[in-house]
């Protein structure tokens, strides 16, 4: 479910479960649901069968770290980070360039490794250029240490308070 619309969650879940029963889908997930929406989802029949929440998450947009991410980790709902490169501009920050040199990869691979450092988080970068795809796959081998993370926190501060879920 891309985002909450006008239809009751219970009806949408009922339809997803019918598709599962018919063998059309293996699992279902949601997108752009904030912590309160997930509580509501869990309260409808079979709502707790949700396997993932696809949400905006990148260095420049860290709001989910406050409440949504820990909640999903606790409930075993996979977080699927969309726009993990912030659609491009964040890649020009010097802090990312320095870490890219240190880890012998592109700034994008550092940004993706940063997103993937959390257990229970996967990500869906978009890349139309084959060189970008090749650069991005290197993220799985980049292990950021405490010093790297502190340098990134200095440029891209973590949230100090809760805020509504960001969307692009
Ligand atoms: N659920 C939702 O509401 C929602 C909302 C927004 C997006 N999404 C999904 O999230 C996915 C990706 O998000 P996005 O396209 O918004 O943003 P993104 O993945 O953060 O950024 C994509 C941009 O980054 C560039 N890029 C990729 N790899 C790069 C690299 N190694 N070096 C430099 N630039 C690089 C791409 O350029 P090239 O194309 O030139 O390679 C493209 O311009 C898509 O599948 C999209 O459908 C979901």
Task: Please supply descriptive tags for the structure shown above.
168 residues, alpha/beta, TIM Barrel, 4-stranded parallel sheet, 7 helices, 9% strand, elongated, binds NADP nicotinamide-adenine-dinucleotide phosphate
Structural notes for this entry:
- It is a single chain.
- This protein has 168 residues and is an alpha/beta fold.
- It has seven helices and four strands; from the N terminus they run H-E-H-E-H-E-H-H-E-H-H.
- The protein has helices at 9-21, 35-42, 68-75, 94-103, 107-115, 130-137, 146-155; strands at residues 30-31, 52-56, 78-82, 121-123.
- A four-stranded parallel sheet has the order 1-2-3-4, covered by helices on one side.
- Helix 4 (94-103) crosses helix 5.
- The longest helix has 13 residues, at 9-21.
- The protein is elongated.
- The relative contact order is 0.15.
- NADP nicotinamide-adenine-dinucleotide phosphate (NAP) is lined by residues 2, 31-32, 54, 82-88, 91, 106, 108, 124-129, 132, 135-136, 168.
Helix content: 25-40%
Largest sheet: 4 strands, parallel
Major β-sheet strand ordering:
1-2-3-4
CATH architecture of the domain at 51-155: Alpha-Beta Barrel
Order of helices and strands: HEHEHEHHEHH
Look up the CATH topology of the domain at 51-155: TIM Barrel
Distance between the termini: 16 Å
List the helices and strands and how they pair.
Elements: H1 9-21, E1 30-31, H2 35-42, E2 52-56, H3 68-75, E3 78-82, H4 94-103, H5 107-115, E4 121-123, H6 130-137, H7 146-155
Parallel strand pairs: 1-2, 2-3, 3-4
The structure holds NADP nicotinamide-adenine-dinucleotide phosphate (NAP).
